[in-house]
C-alpha cells in the first residue's frame, strides 16, 4: 500500500490525512508545532470539526497515521499549508515554498508532489517546479507535480472531501494522471485532470464568483435604500427567473477564502481585474455601512446601548477569521457615544481581543441589538428574551430573525429606507 506524507496538519491537512489513513494508506503527517504533533499522536485533535476526532483517534490507534516534525520518504507528498496575504494584498506563499523545500530531500524518482494550498496562478510552474529542479530532479520527468485545490466548505469538510469533484492540475499531463489516481482512491466525486495553471485559476475563480455576486447583492442594498424598496423581496422575485441567482447581502464578506482569494488574481492581472477589485471594495465597505445605519437608528438617543450579536464570519461556526462582525464591533467601540457589548454563543473569550458579555449582560438596558451572524440561537430569539432591553429594536444584517411580535421592531439590512430613529421612550401604541 502507498505511503502518503502530508505537510501541514490544519483544517485541510488533518482531515485529508485521516481520510487517506482510513482508506488504508500509511500516512505520516508533518507539522511545525510540537503541540499539534503530540496531540495527534495521543489520538486527539487540536481543531473542532464534526466527526474528525473519532476518525483521527481510530486511525492513530490502528497505526495507520502518525504525526512528526519533519517529513520522511513516501510515495506521495501533499502540501496543505496556509497562504496568508501580505499587507499589500499580495499572496504570502512562504509556507508553500518552505514546505516544498522540506520535502525535496526525501524525494525519489516517481514520487507525486501535490500542492493543495490556494496559490496565485502560475505558482506551480514558476515557483514549485524550479525548487524541485534545484534539488536535482527534472519536474517534467522524474517527479509528478500537481495542484489539487481544496474546495470544501468549513462545517462539511469530512463529507465534501470525499464527495466533491476534485480538479487535478498537473505540471505535465502524466503528473495530472498520477496525482488524479491518488485522489481516486478516496474521492467518490469526479476527479478531473487538467493543467496546473487551469486548476489554480479555477479554484480562485470559484471564490471570486461568490465574492463578486455577494458584492452585487450588497450594492443592491445600498440602491434599495436610495430608491425605497425591500432588497430581499427584489432578490426573492428576481431569483424566480431560472437563470438568475442573486446572492445574499450582509454585513460584509469574511473568512480566509472569499475575502482573500480574489486578491491572488488581482496581483497577477491588475489592469484586467477591474470588476473583481470593485467587488472587493464594495464588500469591504459593508462594515462601515452597517455602522452608519446604527448611527442613523440611534441619532436621537443620548447614550445608546448596543448589543452586538454574533462575531463569527458566518453562522454556526466559531471562526472569527477576517470577520466583518469584529470590524463592526471595533468601529462602534471607537465611537464614544456608544456603550457596546458583544455576545456570541460560539466564541470563547480567548478568541477575541476584547471582553465578551453573556446574553443577559448584553441585553440589559440595551436600545438596539445588531445581529451580525446567522447562528441558529438568533433565528429563534423571542420577545421574552429581549424583555430587559430599554427599547426593543433589532437590526438584522443577516435576514435571519424569525421574530414577529408587535413589541419588537426588526429592521433588515435590505429594507433600510423605513428606518425610524429610536426614541428613548417609544410612543404609546394606539
Ligand atoms: N456570504 C454572503 N452572502 C452569501 C454567501 C456568503 O454575504 O450569499 C458571506 C458569508 O457570510 C461569509 C462569506 O461570505 O462571510 C463566505 O462564506 P461562505 O460560506 O460562502 O464560504 P467559505 O469562505 O466558508 O468557504 C468557501 C467555499 N467556496 C465556495 O463556496 C465557492 C468553500 O467551498 C471553499 O473551499 C472555501 O471557500 C475555501 O477554502 O476556499
Automatic annotation (TrEMBL):
Domain UDP-glucose/GDP-mannose dehydrogenase C-terminal, residue spans: 307-403
Biological process, per Gene Ontology: polysaccharide biosynthetic process
GO molecular function: NAD binding; oxidoreductase activity, acting on the CH-CH group of donors, NAD or NADP as acceptor; oxidoreductase activity, acting on the CH-OH group of donors, NAD or NADP as acceptor
Superkingdom of source: Bacteria
Keyword Oxidoreductase: yes
Keywords: NAD, Oxidoreductase, Signal
Residues of the signal peptide: 1-21
Family statement: Belongs to the UDP-glucose/GDP-mannose dehydrogenase family.
Protein name: UDP-N-acetyl-D-mannosamine dehydrogenase
Organism the protein comes from: Geobacillus thermodenitrificans (strain NG80-2)
Amino acid at each position: 500500500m502507498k505511503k502518503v506524507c502530508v505537510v501541514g496538519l490544519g483544517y485541510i491537512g488533518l482531515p485529508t490525512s485521516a481520510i487517506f489513513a482510513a482508506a488504508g494508506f500509511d500516512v505520516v503527517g508533518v507539522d511545525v508545532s510540537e503541540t499539534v504533533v503530540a496531540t495527534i499522536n495521543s489520538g486527539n485533535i487540536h481543531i473542532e470539526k464534526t466527526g474528525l476526532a473519532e476518525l483521527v483517534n481510530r486511525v492513530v490507534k490502528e497505526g495507520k497515521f502518525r504525526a512528526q516534525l519533519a517529513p520522511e520518504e513516501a510515495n506521495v507528498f501533499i502540501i496543505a499549508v496556509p497562504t496568508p496575504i501580505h499587507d499589500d494584498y499580495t499572496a504570502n506563499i512562504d509556507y508553500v515554498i518552505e514546505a516544498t523545500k522540506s520535502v525535496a530531500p526525501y524525494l525519489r524518482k516517481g514520487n507525486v508532489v501535490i500542492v493543495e494550498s490556494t496559490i496565485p496562478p502560475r505558482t506551480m510552474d514558476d515557483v514549485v517546479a524550479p525548487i524541485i529542479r534545484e534539488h536535482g530532479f527534472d519536474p517534467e520527468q522524474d517527479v509528478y507535480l500537481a495542484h489539487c485545490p481544496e474546495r470544501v466548505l468549513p462545517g462539511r469538510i469530512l463529507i465534501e472531501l470525499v464527495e466533491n469533484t476534485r480538479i487535478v492540475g498537473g505540471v505535465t499531463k502524466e503528473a495530472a494522471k498520477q496525482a488524479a489516481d491518488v485522489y481516486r482512491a478516496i474521492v467518490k466525486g469526479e476527479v478531473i485532470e487538467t493543467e496546473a495553471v487551469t486548476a489554480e485559476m479555477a479554484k480562485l475563480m470559484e471564490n471570486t464568483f461568490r465574492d463578486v455576486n455577494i458584492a452585487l447583492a450588497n450594492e443592491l442594498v445600498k440602491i434599495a435604500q436610495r430608491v425605497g424598496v425591500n432588497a430581499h423581496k427584489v432578490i426573492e422575485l428576481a431569483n424566480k427567473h431560472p437563470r438568475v441567482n442573486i446572492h445574499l447581502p450582509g454585513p460584509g464578506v469574511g473568512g480566509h477564502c472569499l475575502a482573500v482569494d480574489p486578491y491572488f488574481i488581482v496581483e497577477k492581472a491588475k489592469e484586467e481585474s477591474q470588476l473583481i477589485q470593485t467587488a472587493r471594495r464594495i464588500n469591504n465597505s459593508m462594515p462601515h455601512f452597517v455602522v452608519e445605519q446604527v448611527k442613523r437608528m440611534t441619532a436621537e438617543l443620548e447614550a445608546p446601548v448596543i448589543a452586538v450579536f454574533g462575531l463569527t464570519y458566518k453562522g454556526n461556526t466559531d471562526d472569527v477569521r477576517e470577520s466583518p462582525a469584529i470590524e463592526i464591533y471595533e468601529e462602534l467601540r471607537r465611537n464614544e457615544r456608544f456603550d457596546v457589548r458583544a455576545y456570541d454563543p460560539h466564541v470563547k473569550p480567548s478568541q477575541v481581543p476584547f471582553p465578551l458579555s453573556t446574553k443577559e449582560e448584553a441585553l440589559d438596558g440595551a436600545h438596539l441589538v445588531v445581529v451580525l451572524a446567522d447562528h441558529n440561537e438568533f433565528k429563534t430569539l423571542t420577545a421574552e428574551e429581549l424583555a430587559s432591553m430599554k427599547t426593543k429594536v433589532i437590526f438584522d444584517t443577516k435576514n435571519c430573525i424569525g421574530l414577529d411580535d408587535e413589541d419588537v421592531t426588526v429592521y433588515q439590512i435590505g429594507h433600510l429606507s423605513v428606518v425610524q430613529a429610536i426614541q428613548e421612550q417609544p410612543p404609546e401604541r394606539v
